[in-house]
């Protein structure tokens, strides 16, 4: 213990070791879409700009997506579903990710691929339920007792380590300054980790929660704004009031974050505010229905008390024709529940079988679900759109191209697919590099397109080989004992079946 002039924040509560608040949000699949920064709409008219935020063409789909964004922001979309339907490589995934960017990081967005539901360890419905809850946000507003100010002193107090060699940290001394005054605090050493992680140093504005001892860096004090030219840093003014005060703290979490915190064995259950401060590294714990309904009832009561607000986000299910009837039925029911995000599906299938049934249906989805969808079509690109997209992708992947090479690539794209030519960029660059060049020429592109063929050519090659093999076999079997005609029938049926499951053109 140091002298009496030091304050202990709320001396009757032992400071707990609070790791950084960690969200369980999934990392997005953005690598192929890094050039897309939004939907590229006019800020007032909401009309699609011919070229905006990395997007070219596909105007009507982008405008429709913009309308969805507006509806979500006005909270008119919960429990509804959208389907992006169009041939492969027409920007469906890119549009969905752009929707996420337009919504901002306060609205949860959970991307998944339909085939994720097929796991041998977890039930399909469990995967869907978890992702559903990742897509529902809760904004919690709390009045908290805090110490806030600019750090003027930060000293770990060392003592000789009683159990071994070297020194141990006994406590951390922090002085905080505001316009009105300053205060020196002596804090538990467990806080030091979090201080180091957030790289807190003198001159930063921080606050420390009195109850939990959680430390949060707000930003750099703007007195230091001219000192360095750090664009990444956020400068904040010196707080006006006293160091010790009540502050409204707003936290955005998802229901899944709360489920995870609640499923952890330690800690008191049943209080959102204490759960929020318990969010730690996600651990593998089973979240049961009982635990989920526990969270639901706590959330309900917080909402009715006006402390928390539900923020329905977006669950994006890519390649949704991979879902089966069981998954669709479950989703349909979940969409009806009072806690429901907006579900955005994407598919490139026209009419195909609903998985798990023998029924054919549009996009391989059950009719009752199709009925409640808003469907946004995307269309194949023409050469000039492909040209612009390939150009921007080349910049994003740092591939320098000769104009002729770019033109040739877009020609190839117009005859195959956008996806294919985007994939050719890096091989073309490697070929150029092998020849000791920095810039990709038309020859490099040609060579790359010979090394790596597109799906149509590949299917052609396979079909040709298949036919040759069959012809050979037939020739052999006619020489041997003639086979009965019935045995040949299933072969024909099997060959005809996949045709129905081909992507849209
Ligand atoms: N209109 C567009 N403007 C810019 N880039 C696009 C556009 N459409 C597609 N892309 C890019 O082309 C590639 C293929 O598009 P993607 O969204 O994956 O197609 P889909 O999901 O429809 O199969 C991605 O890298 C995507 O970012
Ligand atoms: Mg896609």
TrEMBL record:
GO terms for biological process: positive regulation of gene expression. The keyword Cytoplasm does not apply. Its EC number is 3.6.4.12. Coiled coil: none annotated. Keywords: ATP-binding, Helicase, Hydrolase, Nucleotide-binding, Nucleus, Transcription, Transcription regulation. Its main location: nucleus. It comes from the Eukaryota. It catalyses: ATP + H2O = ADP + phosphate + H(+). It holds the Pfam family TIP49. One of its GO terms (cellular component) is nucleus. Residues 463-477 have a biased composition (Basic and acidic residues). GO terms for molecular function: ATP binding; DNA helicase activity; hydrolase activity. Residues 461-483 are annotated as: Disordered. PANTHER family: RUVB-RELATED REPTIN AND PONTIN (PTHR11093). This is RuvB-like helicase. It comes from Pristionchus fissidentatus.
